[in-house]
Please model this.
Amino acid sequence: MIKKVLTLISIFMIFLAGCVNTESDVESVSNSKSKGPTIELLGMSTSEDDLNILRDQLTKNGFSVKLNIQPDYGSFTAQKDAGNYDLALNSWTTVTGNPDYAVRSLFMSNGDNSLFSDKKVDELVEKASTQLPEDYHNTYKELEQYVVLDKAYIVPLYVSYKAQAFNHDIIDDSTVRLPKSRAAVWETYDFVDKTKRDTQPLITQQALGSLTSLDPIKGNDGSINTLNTNMYVRLVNLTDDDQVVSNGSLSLNYAIAEGSTDYYFLLRDDIHFAKVQDKVAIDTGERVGAEDVKFSLDRAKNKNSVPDHRTYSLHENMKEISIVSDLRELDTKTTNGKTIREALESGVQQKITKLATNKDEVNNESGIYQIVKITTTKPFPQVLNYLAHQSAGIVSKKQVESINTFDVNSYDVNKDIAYGDQKTVTEGKDYNNHLYASGPYILTYKNDYEAHFVKNPGYMPSTENEPKISQVIVKFIPDSDSALSALRNGEIHILNGVPENKYDLVKKDDKLTFQQNKSNGVSYLAFNMKDRDVSKSVPLRKAILFSINQDELINFYHGNKMKAVSTLSPLVDTKLEIKADSKKVSELLKEYNREK
Model:
């Protein structure tokens, strides 16, 4: 018996000897359990691949990483608001197509999504906003150098492509657009079999099912951007390559006066607000007019107009919104030498004979129009891009004022009902749809699985902009692979956001059409700039910055990502570049330790 025990012990000792780490193995294990700075990395489960890659890269450079992975956007935001992170994985899409939007909300000290506060950054953003492209390039380069390479306020990861796929057996491929910045344009979609327009819904999807708000100024995220873009008309739109146009908007034309501080918009008269009654869209008979434009934009630029205003910084350069009443004002010269009247009347069937300040008096066929003038605080041509953003959607003055009767300063989310609250459109005891939509579609109801939209019967009827399909269903499918399966199985018709590693699979599917375009979407890491080591130490932030290898991320996505330096990267090529550098990281961590 003793011999058997000794034999077993000998075998066990030999086994252990075979498992002893070599010197290099020990270093590897030591690095994986680093005693260096501990970094808490926050993200959502939909970005788990990125989070794992980032964890490994940081660990190899001497950091100890804790992953905080949340299942959905709501819980992710709650963790951010509670400050439970050092780094948060975020993304930003410049949906207005102009560089000021790429930086103002995020980089300005008073931005509604501000990541940090720095007076020099504020000055550079304001300086660039007044410049034309030939001048602002150098200013934005200086800004990017300072924000990223000098101060490491953010850690850029990559620029994404915009990719979608649709079932061309069901959807007419000539009607499907893939704009670089603008959200999906539902009113252009049509079925191959046009007899199904009124009997079959268009079925699309999005990842987020918890909606921030159906009030366009109270949300600026992936849960509502597409939905609000299709529910509220704007003064102007963006083409697929980010040019500002009046096509399909509330204005027939716009003009810029000399000095670039006064902007004029000639309004069309064939859009009515829709409301929901018994889950059916009803034409209210109320015209979308200049009074509604003034009301909507005044509240958009006023930080205190609603509780939790999330888009005010986009519109703070608007000084005054007014309704033009004097025809003589139209004799003012534009930036190209024409008069305001000539510019506004270009291509319009009926010339301007009279201006109305009351929308009920308008009749474009008789030459009676409304004109809205926007005056900016300084020469600011980029204001036009902001007016194309979903937050500049036109709401009904009468309806919003009838709902928002609470005092903003004492607003109680548990008691008060604000216009656009998602609970008012969610099936259940709180359902009481009070929406008034000025756009091509209106949300009738939602649940945990999908949202139902119907065509606004008062939206540009009998024109090329009238919606073709009567109903749209948006399925909430958070997992991208599940969404792709739903497309291939015919459960949805269009998938916006094809996973980069599934492009080939889509292209091989005979019933699917694949579309790809460059986008303005940038993924980046944001630091917690409140009471954390990363908020106080530039060397620590820079050590993290130079630990991240963008090439590894791009390789993981089979080359279907592009390098980024900041949220400006898709819009302004500054020629700056970030290269991972472990030696530099080591020196920066030594500097950080000396600070302590």
Observations:
- The longest strand covers residues 512-527.
- Residues 133-150 form the longest helix (18 residues).
